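Task: encode each sequence below as C-alpha cells.

Item 1
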Amino acid sequence: MKIDLRLIHKPEEQSRARRTVWAVVTGIFWLIYAYLWLPLVTLVLWVLGVRTAAFELYMREHAVEPFLLIALPLIAILATVVMGAWAEYNRARFGGTDRRQRPDNTPTDIVAMDLGANEVVAAAMATAKIIMLHMDDNARPVSAAVREVPQAAQVMAPVSKSSSGGNRGHVRGDPVSVG
C-alpha cells in the first residue's frame, strides 16, 4: 500500500471525521503510555517523601483538615483567575497589532569584510533568496551561485532527473554564477 505523504503536509485535505478519529486514537494511546509509567512515578514519589507528606497533611488523625479542604481549592481558583486576568490584560494591551520591526539591513561592505568575501559575493548574498556559496579552504566565500525562486506550481511538480541521473529536486534551471 502506497501512502500519500502530501496528506502529512496538508492535513486540511483529510476529512474532519478522519482527523477526529485519529486524534481520539492518539489520545487513547497517550493515556495508555502514561498509565504504564505510573508504577515508576509512584516509586519516585515514595522515595522523595510525597507519601509521607500526604500522611502528615491528611491521614495523621484519620480526617481531612477543614482548612485544607477549603483553602487549597480556593487558592487554586484564585491563581487561575489571576493568571487568566493577566493574560486578558496582555491581550487587550498588546493584541491586534504587530509591533515587531524588521532590523535594518547590514551594508554589503561590512558583510564582505566580516566574511572575507568580495563585494560581488556580498551583494549577491544581500539580494538573492536562494544562494549556494562556494568556500575556500579557510571557509571564506569565494563565489556564489544564485538560483531562481521556484514557482508554487513547480514545487509540487514531479521531480525531474538530470542528464547525469541525479535528482535535481524542485529548483528549475541552472544556477547563475556570480563572482
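Item 2
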Amino acid sequence: MKLATTRSDARNASRGARRSLGPAALAAGLLLAAVAAAPLAEARWTIREVGNHPDYNLELEFHFALSLVQGPYVSSGTGFGPGARITAPVLQNGFVTTINNSVAISFGVDWIHFSSFAKTNVDDFYLPLVLQWNFWLTDEWSVFGEPGLALVLRTNRSTTAAPVLNAGARWLLTDDFAVVLRGGYPVVTVGLSFIN
C-alpha cells in the first residue's frame, strides 16, 4: 500500500512540474520580446562586419537563476537562487569567417533552492562549463548558444552530471555593461554583466 501511494505522489508531482513549465516559459519569452523590441529596432546592424564587437578579456556576470527542473524529493518543480558566470573569449573571430561572431568558454555557479515534501530545504549547486558561441547582431545586441556540462551538487550529498543547453541574448547598455538573458536546461537566468 505504501509503495502505491509513493508512486502516485511521484506521478502527481511530475505532472505539476510539467504544468508549471508552460506559464514560466511563456513569461520568459514575453519578457525577452518586450525588452528586445524597442532597442533592436533603433540599433545599427553589425552582423556582416567581421570583428566589430567588444574586444574584451573577461566578462563577469551576476544573475538570478530559476530552475524549472524538478530535483529529487522535491514537491515543487521550480527552484530559484543567485548565480554568477565568468566568461573568457578564446576566438575573437568565431567559427564562421564571414559574419560577426566570437567563441568563449564560460563557467560559474548557480545556487538553486527548492521546497521539499518533508518541509526541509533542498539546495542544488550547478557548476556549469560551457562553450559560448556569440553572434553580434547589432552594436547593442548579441545572441548566443551554450552547449556544455554541469556538475550538480545536492544537499543530500549526491553528485551528478547534467547536460547544459542554453540560448541567450546580451543587451549592451555601454561598452562595459550589459543585461544578459539566458534560457534553457537546467536553468533560466536574468542578470547584469561587466565586460573588461
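Check on item 2: The domain at 2-195 is CATH 2.40.160.20 (Porin). The longest strand covers residues 121-136.
End of task.
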